[in-house]
Please model this.
Amino acid sequence: MSQAIQASETSHAPKALLAGLSESQAAQWVEALAGRLAQAQAQGKSFAIEGHRSKSFYGEPATGEQVPLSMADYVGVVSYDPTELVVVTRSGTPIDHLESLLASKGQRLAFEPPRFGGKGTVGGMVATGLSGPGRLSAGACRDFVLGMTVMNAQGELLRYGGTVMKNVAGYDLSRLHTGALGTLGLILDVALKVLPVPAATATVCIACSQSKAIEDSNLWMAQPLPLSATAFEQAEPGAALGRLSLRFSGAKAAVGAAVELFTAQYGAQALVPAAADAFWLSLRDQTHGFFQPEASFPKLSLWRISVPGCTPALASLQDEPRGCVLEWAAGQRWVWSAKPAVQMQQLAQDHGGHATLYRPAQLAPDAKPAPRFTPLSPALHRLHLRLKDELDPQRVFNPGRLYPSL
Amino acid sequence: MNAPATPPLSALRPPSEALQWQPGELKFARLDQALDPAAREALIENLLQVLPAESVIVHQEGLKPYECDGLTGYRHLPAVVVLPHTEQQASQVLAICHARNIPVVARGAGTGLSGGATPHRGGLVLSTARLNRILSLDPAARTAKVQPGVRNLAISEAAAAHGLYYAPDPSSQIACTIGGNVAENSGGVHCLKYGLTVHNVLRVRGLTIEGEAVEFGSEAFDSPGFDLLALVIGSEGMLALTTEVTVRLTPKPQLARVIMASFDEVEKAGQAVADLIGAGIIPAGLEMMDKGMTAAVEEFVHAGYDLSAQAILLCESDGTPAEVEEEIGRMKAVLSNSGATDLRVSESEAERLRFWSGRKNAFPASGRVSPDYYCIDGTIPRRRLGQMLARITELEKKYGLRCLNVFHAGDGNLHPLILFDAAKPGEFETTEKFGAEILEICVEYGGTITGEHGVGIEKIDTMCVQFSVAERLSFFAVKHAFDPKGLLNPGKAIPTLSRCAEYGRMHVHRGELRFPQLERF
Model:
C-alpha cells in the first residue's frame, strides 16, 4: 500500500466517500500519535488502546495502569474499489459505517463481525478477530485481512500485505496482528477483502435433539447445499428437542431448491425473511436473549467453547440451567456455567479445542478472577513471549490483555 | 514463565548502525559457503546415529538430484541430504544441526520456482519424501491429516470417494507436496472462489530448529493466542519444519462449465474481468492468455483457440446444475456487454478440459517455441492489466526479448514468460533484469512482487523495493523469535539491509533513479 498508488486509488473510488479525515489530517494525526508514543516510551508508560470500547469486556481487562489511547478519531475509508473486492479503511472507522458503504455497492463483510450495542471500530474488529454466523461458510475475520499498516513502539509505520489477495512476500504479519488484541502494535489502516451480497437468502428451522443437530449440520455441510450458517438453541436443560436453524445463501435456484428439499423431506419450517434476518442479527450482535445475563442466575459465566464441529454433545454441560446455543455447525458452543475455569478449559482441550471465559459472573469480593483464555502449551507460550519481546519489548501496547505475560 | 534466554534483536542492534547492521544470524545467508571436511565428517557420523544409513545421502551422485529446485539457474550441492521416516527422526536431525550450526533447507518435491529449496553448500537438505502418508481422513468433519510429503493431488484423490476434495490446486499439484504448499501459501486457478492454502488449512504441526514440536492452529475453528498458523503458512521454511498438516476438505462441485471468450483488445479483456467482479460474480476460475501465448499453446494442444484474438479469457462456473446454469447466463451477459467477439461454452467435461488444456500447458508450450523461458510471478490490481501488458510490450523492445503472458485474472496474479536462449552469452542476465523491471512495475501499480511462487532467492532483491528498512527489520525480528541462529533456510526471502543498499547503488550507477518516490535509503 505504497504512497504511489493512493492517488490513483481514490480516482477510482465512488464520489460519495464517507466523511473522514483528509489525507493531510490523517498524516498529522499519525504524526501526533508517533509523538505520544515517543513520550510514553521515555516515561516508561504503556497504553490501553481503545476504539468504541464495545469489546472491552473481551479478554483480560486493562489493569488501569495504562494510559488510554483512543483511535476513535482516526476515521475514514481510504480507498474502495468494488471491482477489486478490496476496501482500505482507517481503524477508528465504525464498522456499521463501513458496512453501509459496502451495502451501497451490493457488497459486505462476509464474516459478519459483531457490533455490540451497535458499536465497534474496524480496528477493534480486527484486533479481536471475532466473527459471526457467516464464518462457517465464508471464513473468519482473519481470512479477509489483505494488508495492514501498523505503528510500532518506535512510532514507525509498517505496511504489511497489500490490497491484492495473493501476496506471499514477507511473513504474514497482517494476520499476526489480527486477533492479537492490540498487543503487538497499533493498527492504523486495514485492507479487507469484500464479497458480493448473495443473490438470495432463506432460513428454515427443524426441531431435533442436540446430537442430531450436531450430526446433521455437519452432514449437510459436506453436501452441495448453499448452507451459509447454522444455529441450534436448546433452552431447557434435559429437554429432548431444541431448534436447529439453517440459513441458505447463494444463487436463487440453489436457495429455492434447498428450502423446498428441507420443507418437503425434513419437515422444516421456512422463516419469513424479516424474522430470519432478525434472528441471525440477534446471534451476530448477541442481542439474542440467551446472551443476556439473567438475574436469577448470578453465579453463571458465559463460556465460549471452540471445538471441532463433529464433537458430540458435551455430557458434563447438559445439566447447565440455561441450556446452550451452538453455532458454526457446532464448532462454536455457548453455555452459561458456574464450573471452574480449569474444568471448562480441560473439557475443551480434551476435545481438541479451547474455552474462553467470555463474560464472567460478578465475582465475590475475595475471589480471584479466572483467566479468560485457555493457557498455551509451554512451546507455544515461549514463542509468544519471544514474539512479544521482539515486537513490543517495552510492553507499550495493551500489556496483559491477552495473557498476563504478554 | 521463565524469561527466554535469547535477547530480542532490538537489544542486539545498535540503533545508530541500523542501515549497515546485519544480524549475526545472517552469517549463513551466503549459500555458497562450504562446510570444512572435518565438520562434515562429524555431522555425518552424528546423523548416522539417529537415522538408518539409507536415509543419509553423502556421495556426489546421490546429492546431485537435490542441487536445485524448479529454479534451475541456481545450484549448490548440499553437504548432506537426509530423508527421515518419522517426526522423531526429523526432530533429532534438527537438534543435531542446531548444536553444530548447520543450515537446514527443507525440500518437498522440489517443484518450487523461486529457489526456496535451493541447498546451502555447507548445509543439510531435509527431504520429506518419506513423510508421505495420509494419516487419517474424516469425511464427517471434512478434514484430512497428512504428512508434509503427501502430494497435493493425492489428497483430493483420497477424498474423492466421499465427494470431497482439497481445493487449492496449483498447476504443479500432480507433483508438489502439501508441505511445500504450506511453505509458499500456494494458490491455484480456483483460489479466488476457494481461497489459498491459509484459508484451507486448520492446523500445522511443526518442529522448531531446536527439534521441539509445536502445534499451530487446531482442528477446532480457532485457537487461543496469536495466529501463528497464519504466520507459519507462507514462511518459506524459515520458521519451522512442517511434520503434519490438517487440511479442510470441500464438497466437490457436481458440475463445472467454462466459457472461452475472445477479445480484440487486451484492455477490453481487462475491463471484462472488472465487469464480472463488479456484477457480483465470483467465478470458480478466471484466466487470461495473450495472443502470443495463445499461438504457442494452440500449436501444442490444438484445442481450437481463436488465433486472431488479442486476449482469451477462460471463465468457469461450478456448483449444482441449477447454480451453473444461472451463473453461466450471467457471465455470458457480462462478457458480451464488455465486448467479447466470440463466446463458446463447454458442453461436456471433455470439452471443458480441452478449453483449459492450453492454459494448463502454457509452460511446455513455451518450451517448444524457445530454448529457455523465465516465468515471472507478480500481482497487480486487475484493472491495471491492460496498462501492464502495454508496458511489457515496450520492455520487449527495450530488452530485445519476447514475453508471453498468462494471467490469473481472478486475483490479479500475472505470469509473464520471458523467452530467451541461455546459450547466448549475457541473455540470462538480461532476462533477469527484464523480470525485475516487471516486478517493480507491479509494486508501482499497487501490487506485489510475488503472488504465489514465493520470494526464495529469486526475488530477494525486489524485496528491497517492496519493503522499507523498518519493515524488513520487523521480519528479521519475527525470524529471530523462532530461529535466533538463522539456520532454517538462510539467505532466502528477506534480504539483508546491506544487500538492498548494493541493489540501490546499481540503479544510481546507471545514471537514473527510477521511482524516486519509493524509499531507497
Q: What stands out?
A: Chain A is about 30% helix and 25% strand. Chain A touches chain B through 97 residues (CB under 8 Å). Residues 1-17 of chain A have pLDDT under 50 and may be disordered.
